[in-house]
Design brief:
This protein is of the alpha/beta class. It has helices at residues 15-26, 43-50, 69-73, 88-101, 117-125, 134-137, 182-194, 214-224, 238-243, 267-274, 285-292, and strands at 2-8, 32-38, 55-57, 82-86, 105-109, 128-131, 148-150, 169-173, 200-204, 232-233, 247-250, 279-281. The longest helix is centred in the first third of the chain and has 14 residues, at 88-101.
Length: 294
């Protein structure tokens, strides 16, 4: 049986964390023995333990945690056959784990963080890189083709009521990160309302660990625009959120000073398609690839 150490950098829930949970839920336990190492405390550890998977938390949040990687890696018990790094920070820690555990390192890259020289340097030191879109894989054109794979995240198919029976509701799902473009979506909805289009908006997702004030700012903006600020924030039941949607939108903006795309292969659009909901998004590489299929 293959022992796999899954490493995840955050303790909360977002797109990459949901992908990890989906993988763990469907892993063939007769062939694979999963263990999970989290680099932050949070609800993700509880969800993984509910699956009966051994989970270790080494709380090393933010950039200061990186300085502890070499020491902390030596405290991780082995052996393992593969280290699966779920994201860029996890891959950086994975390099220290790789030296300690003598196991190959697989980096699953979900977004366009660590672009440019950092991507090339980190990818070159991993044994294999899995990208969630072809657009992202282009960043590894210097690596041998055999060391880079493209695997789209899997999603659950939802059997919901037909979209024709919904009221005019625009839904968007994701962490309350300013780069998600939720503010632009609210302003666009208000403009449509001003032009006589009947509609409502639901923004569902957890607060962002870095941009902690964004959720409150979005609630205030929704109220100022005559929309309902109470429909901005966490949702316990995503089935109910998607079932209410006439359309699911993603208005993500370029991220960072270099204008890198803010999305790799957005899970929200795949989940919406799996719920038989029409989708619309900004013309950015990962988003366009998911919507158009190319």
């Amino acid at each position: 049986m293959m022992r796999i150490l899954f490493v995840a950098p955050y303790g909360g829930f977002g797109g990459s964390e949901n992908v990890l949970v989906n993988v763990l839920e469907r892993l063939d336990r007769t062939r694979f023995e999963p263990h999970v190492l989290l680099l932050e405390q949070g609800p993700l550890s509880d969800r993984i333990r509910e699956l009966g998977i051994p989970t270790l938390v080494q709380h090393m949040p933010g950039k200061p945690g990186v300085a502890k990687f070499a020491t902390s890696a030596r405290r991780v018990p082995g052996p393992f056959d593969v280290i699966h790094a779920n994201g860029g920070k996890a891959a950086v820690y994975g390099l220290a784990l790789r030296r300690h555990l003598k196991a190959p390192l697989l980096w699953m890259k979900h977004d366009h963080s660590y672009e440019g020289r950092l991507t090339h340097a980190l990818g070159a030191r991993c044994d294999h890189v899995v990208c969630v879109s072809h657009a992202m894989a282009e960043g590894f054109d210097d690596l041998p083709e055999a060391r880079v794979s493209v695997i789209y995240p899997g999603v659950i198919l939802r059997d919901l009521k037909p979209v024709e029976g919904t009221t005019p509701m625009i839904v968007s799902v994701g962490r309350m990160d300013p780069f998600k473009g939720f503010d632009q979506l609210l302003r666009a909805a208000a403009q449509l309302r001003a032009e006589g289009v009947e509609l409502d908006v639901r923004l569902a997702g957890p607060p962002d660990n870095v941009h902690k004030d964004t959720q409150l700012e979005l609630k205030r903006l929704a109220d100022e625009l005559g929309l309902d600020g109470d429909k901005v924030g966490w949702a316990d039941d995503l089935d109910e959120v998607y079932e209410s949607a006439r359309v699911v939108a993603l208005a993500s903006k370029p991220k960072g000073e270099n204008g890198a795309p803010g999305e790799g292969a957005p899970l929200v659009l795949m989940e919406a398609m799996g719920a038989a909901r029409p989708v619309v998004g900004t013309d950015m590489p990962g988003i366009a690839e998911v919507i158009s299929g190319c």
